[in-house]
């Protein structure tokens, strides 16, 4: 039986810690948390992909924001941070990304596991009360049916996805064994401002960057593989809603739009938005790539009222405009 933490609800006045908070999704989650006026907001990030400057907006909104450049896998250092700040809730977004797991599968898998295990041990010991754990839609693998509900089998196709599926099982086991308060979120393909455009870049920033540099756009495979794209600010909103609703405790939720969009369609939309004339070239399939991906958003909608507000066309325009401003 899972714990229903009666103290859950507003984040106002709470001590909040976010792992991976200087990353793409994490920094937007910090922005949204800061708007709730927490008593304190602590961010732990090793800056593998994140940037401390991603926290500028959150810092402006929350005077008591403290940043630590540390690995969440470092048990001793993490405990020092917990001892100093005594968070009420931890939002866990720390992760080694999918492309790195294709280069260094053993290290990436071990690091993802150890970061979550370190948090779980602190959680079990009562150092913090609630864990909001970020999984990934990649744990589902290629869709057996569309849309994919939370009951879809876990069929990870990459070491990254397998390590994330393992951490899902890990946090669930701690919840059930030690009667802890947990919410697990499975975001689908996020896009928007601040997404890394360098090493291990995702599709949207990679295509935008090539367009802005007037370089050839490369599509891995035939481009007909599909994804469910969700604007990052919508994911951040859903994250706070999931924490606020006690009836979300012990459950897993897709964060998705419910719309299936091909890679080729995304490229075509970005080319049209930018009025670009760049060439498009197809390359070999990405190892372990999933063919179809589309999430069922109904459980999140029914449980805590989440419906994405930013449609794909508007979100892509916002994203292109942001990357343009970053180029000066």
Provide key terms for this protein.
two-stranded parallel sheet, 13 strands, disordered N terminus, 40% helix, globular, single chain, seven-stranded parallel beta sheet, 11 helices, Rossmann fold, 328 residues, alpha/beta
Helix count from the secondary structure assignment: 11
- Principal-axis shape equals globular
Structural class: alpha/beta
Instruction: Please outline the major beta sheet.
Output: 7 strands, parallel
Please name the fourth-level CATH homologous superfamily of the domain at 15-192 and 230-258. NAD(P)-binding Rossmann-like Domain
The strands making up the biggest β-sheet line up spatially as: 3-2-1-4-5-6-11
CATH topology description of the domain at 15-192 and 230-258: Rossmann fold
- Please give the radius of gyration in angstroms: 19 Å
Average predicted confidence as pLDDT: 95
Q: How far apart, in Å, are the first and last alpha carbons?
A: 54 Å
Give the fraction of residues assigned to helices.
Answer: 25-40%
Strand content: 15-25%
CATH top level label of the domain at 15-192 and 230-258: Alpha Beta
Order of helices and strands: EHEHEHEHHEHEEHEEEHEEHEHH
| Contiguous uncertain segments of 5+ residues | 1-7
